[in-house]
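Example (one chain per record):
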Amino acid sequence: MELSTGTAPAAAALPPDGPRALPDQDDPASLTVVPARHPARWAAAVAVIVLVAQFVHGLATNPVWEWGVFGDYILSDTIVEAVWVTLQLTAYATVLGFLLGTVLAFMRLSRSPVLQTVAWTYIWIFRSIPMIVQLVFWFNLSALYEELGVGIPFGPVFWSVDSNSLIGTIGAAVIGLTLHQAAYAAEIVRGGVISVDHGQLEAAAALGVPRLRQIRRIVLPQAMRAILPTAGNEIIGLLKGTSVVYVMAIGELFYQVQVVYGRNGRVVPLLLVATAWYVVLTSLLSVAQYYVERHFARGADRTPPPTPLQRARSLAHGLRTAAARRDRSVVPLRTPGDSR
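Predicted structure:
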């Protein structure tokens, strides 16, 4: 038998690292992931950073701000006393306004047409009249009623007192702020109450729970989650709204700032003093609102998010743990023959 001596076909050249398979378009692991690019977002961020840097540079270099004068008055006795008056007006109007507003809210939710009409009329009137008009009206109450007394309706008066003696300047301001605040507080409370499922009241009534206890133990704790955000915003607005009482010459923060810059002519730094105090007080109220909301959210959220203080502690603990691990990793290991 004769064997063929022909030349065998040359083997196909292979790459040095072996055969390569083309990427499978249906296999996600074989695809190259390219992060999304957002040039407009980066351009907007750069523009904002530049504007903020210009503003900060202007605050630091513009002599008109007069930071020395700001430092002289920010903690002066006159300004601190005015801040205390502002806090007092805010506290009185908040407590009394929300108490009266709660009563008005349940009057509107009542089945009595008389109570509904009276509450609706009160809210309509006091939300329609500007606060400054109400304050001026109560400040001049003695022009309308020289004396206030107690007696039989449409009959004789047994005891009376001069209006100016009974209601002073601070009293008129508190009355005006309270009555104005109560109209808005009533709608805030009413909105929170109607957000509670009515079926829970029906279940409580079927169990024989008294009506007042239903409101105190079932309705209000759940309604607070809806009331608090809007109520906190309203209280912060009231804090800043107390500046309107300057028309009554009450020594609150804005009025005292006006008096001081009226004497020395340093308008800008004194306005900065008032601004700084309003920012500080508003920030404190915001922190208090955060923790109060967190307290009333316990029934709805079993694992509430950590507070800023807890986050700071967790971050500090993580940094300490990482530092301790790094120190242990650089300790040299001893060999068996090391006599040291």
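Caption: The radius of gyration is 36 Å.
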